[in-house]
Amino acid sequence: MSNKLSRRQFVGRSAALAGLATAGPLSPAFAARSDRMNILCWEGYNSDQVLGPFRDAHPGATIRAESGTSDPDMINKLRAGETSVWDLINVNQPWARDQLYPEGLIKPLNKDRFLPYFDKMLLSFKNPPYELSFADDGELIGMPQRYGPFSFVVNTDKISRETAEEQGWNLFLDPAMKDRYGVLTYDNWNIMHMCLTAGLNPFEPVEGADLEKFRETAQTIFGGSKLMTDDLVAMNTALINGEIDAYFTGGTYTASPARYDGLTNVRAITPRSGPVDGKGGVVWIELTSAVNNPDPSDLAQEFLEFVQTPEISKAVAFTEGTYNPVCQMGNEEVMALFDNEELDAIQMDTLAEEMERSLDYQVVASYDTLIDIYTQERRS
Fold first, then answer.
1. What share of residues in the chain are helix, strand, coil (percent, to 5)?
2. What letter would DSSP give residue 34?
3. Is 161 exposed, middle or buried (0-12, 13-18, 19+ CB in 10 A)?
4. Domains in the chain: ranges and CATH
5. Which of 43, 55, 145, 363 is the most buried (most CB within 10 A)?
6. Pairing between strand 246-251 and 181-184?
């Protein structure tokens, strides 16, 4: 599977795997009945802040989690036969409808049980209920929680928010920006963002002369960058120290740790306009789905309800060193748990308007062709 999502390349699985190792190897027998539950997820859901209270609520039950490094990596585990191991899978929004459900790897959720939770979500998720939570046949196939716009980041002491939003991706084509920015090398996202910079739709086939537009854009962006790394801490440090004034590919997710430390001049930017339906930003939204385990755990759907509760929604939002909005913030009880510094860290003041300017993340249509070009230009 080549369409790798690199939003969190820097996150290792060592802690999660260590926890699994100490508890013993996973096997189909561990994912069964009401006394066991295994979740395959992005980091955060595997933290003690989230799993600890759930374990306390189910004494004697074995609750295990493993954090993945990409959506396709996690999905391929299910394809390889691990539907008998896992009870829940937590990946980004296109995969449930486009691959997991059509391939029979996940199963529908009980609408009577879960649809009421949408009523307490933020407006963009509840009216109507978030579209990609549903399969083409209308079945509910995943519950949304964490999300965030993902475009680029600037130091507002050097480039104002207004200027950055107005210029959008053209900022990185300006010759005056040469050696003033870095590239956070989350490859799949870089490819999406380079398409948008070139005026192309990354979610439709890129062919013919448009491939040359993409190549020229990749050449310009890589050629003008001062720093390339997949380490968001290193990138934020360079931004704070004045080594660079902006970085290409980033968002609330990458800016939030610095902002929470009081460095609010580090700001994620969503362009005001762009080439796809007038939009220039992209938003990721995680969905958690029930794996089509032949011997399922009753605890799986209990856990899905558990993470909707105010205290655990907050824990999911603020865990593992990066901070993100959650759609449950439409619930006053959830919002009451966030203080002003936390809301500022995730840029809650502009979140709604940035969502309006963002496309839903989808699978890059011409990924294989574009990654070849991208890799050539990155190496050169």
1. 45, 20, 35
2. T
3. middle
4. 14-147+285-346 (3.40.190.10), 148-281+362-379 (3.40.190.10)
5. 145
6. parallel
Across the chain, how many H-helices and E-strands are there?
Answer: 17, 13
Token look-up 């029930």 returns 290
Per residue in 215-229, pLDDT (tens digit) is 999 999 999 999 999
Cα–Cα distance for residue pair 223/221, rounded to 1 Å: 5
Of 82, 43, 87, 94, nearest to 62 by C-alpha is 87
Express each pLDDT in 330-371 by its tens digit. Answer: 999 999 999 999 999 999 999 999 999 999 999 999 999 999
Q: Indicate the residue type of 319.
A: T
Beta partners for 290?
88, 107
pLDDT at 33: 57
Contact 94, 249 (CB under 8 A): no
Each residue's pLDDT tens digit, 153-176: 999 999 999 999 999 999 999 999
With a CB cutoff of 8 Å and minimum separation 6, the contacts of 116 are none
Give the burial class of 344: count Cβ atoms within 10 A of its Cβ; 0-12 exposed, 13-18 middle, 19 or more buried.
middle
**C-alpha closest to that of 19 among 64, 61, 53:** 64
Measured CA distances, 215 to 204, 206, 267, 367 (Å) = 17, 11, 28, 13
Q: Using one digit for the tens of pLDDT, what is the confidence trace for 253-280?
A: 999 999 999 999 999 999 999 999 999 9
User: Nearest CA to 373 among 147, 186, 206, 201?
Assistant: 206
Quote the tokens at residue 267. 């700001």
pLDDT in tens, 169-206: 999 999 999 999 999 999 999 999 999 999 999 999 99
**For helices 187-197 and 209-224, angle between their N-to-C axes, nearest 10 degrees:** 110
Determine the angle formed by the axes of helices 48-57 and 310-317, rounding to 10 degrees.
150
pLDDT of amino acid 289: 98
Q: Is the pLDDT assigned to residue 17 strictly greater than 70?
A: no
For residue 162, with 0-12 CB atoms within 10 Å meaning exposed, 13-18 middle and 19 or more buried, which class applies?
exposed
